[in-house]
Structure to design on (55 residues):
């Protein structure tokens, strides 16, 4: 029988993805029309991520 560990398993990548999905859902529900690709990129902070990788 495998040893029992604590139930608090944290997958930081999964948690970050869940947070971004939540932010996207909030933005979409607040918008009057469909979000444009540029709006989605802004919510997901795509430009910031590109700058961080380039810098």
């Amino acid at each position: 029988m495998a040893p029992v560990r604590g139930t608090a398993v944290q997958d930081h990548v999964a948690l970050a993805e869940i947070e971004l999905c939540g932010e996207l859902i909030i933005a979409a529900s607040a918008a009057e029309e469909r979000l444009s690709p540029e709006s989605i990129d802004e919510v997901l902070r795509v430009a910031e991520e590109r700058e961080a990788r380039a810098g």
User: Anything to note?
Assistant: The radius of gyration is 17 Å. The chain has a mean pLDDT of 87.
